[in-house]
Amino acid sequence: MIIRWNYIYDEMKIRKLTNTEMCKRLGISRDTWHKYKNNQSDISLRKFYELMKILDLDFYSIVKETELSKPKTEKEKILKSVIDKAVSTDFKDYFK
């Protein structure tokens, strides 16, 4: 899955949220935030969900169309199924 970090940054600017403020809201360091944005580290599902809520965005607006839109392997099919289920329930089943 490829996250559209430029889109997230644009949405942060619209809401006048700085990187520092976003880090505080997510409970992470600026170094971790920098690593997420530069694809040096994977963001956890929970932090990704929190990010979506802070910016009031939906999953598919943040994630680029990738090979998961047309899964070929069994692993891709399973991953797409899990993501679709999580999105359809607004991640409620994952954060009880």
By CATH, the superfamily comes out as lambda repressor-like DNA-binding domains
Q: Within the CATH hierarchy, at the fold level, what is the topology?
A: 434 Repressor (Amino-terminal Domain)
Question: Could you give the distance between the termini?
Answer: 24 Å
Secondary-structure arrangement, i.e. CATH architecture: Orthogonal Bundle
Query: Per the principal axes of the C-alpha atoms, what is the gross shape?
Result: globular
**Strand content range:** under 5%
Task: Specify the number of helices.
Answer: 6
Rg of Cα set? 14 Å
Q: What is the domain tally?
A: 1
Can you give the helix content as a percent range? 55-70%
> Helix/strand/pairing class, anyone?
mainly alpha
Low-confidence sequence ranges: none
Q: Secondary-structure element sequence?
A: HHHHHH
Q: Could you give a short account of the major beta sheet?
A: none
Name the CATH class: Mainly Alpha
3D architecture notes:
It is a single chain. By secondary structure, this protein is an all-alpha fold. It has a single domain, classed as 434 Repressor (Amino-terminal Domain), CATH 1.10.260. It is built from six helices and no strands. The longest helix is centred in the last third of the chain and has 15 residues. It is globular. It starts with a helix and ends in an 8-residue tail after the last helix. 5% of the residues are buried.
Entry keywords:
single chain, 96 residues, mainly alpha, 434 Repressor (Amino-terminal Domain), 6 helices, 58% helix
Q: How do you describe this structure in short?
A:
The protein has a single domain (5-94), classed as lambda repressor-like DNA-binding domains (434 Repressor (Amino-terminal Domain)), CATH 1.10.260.
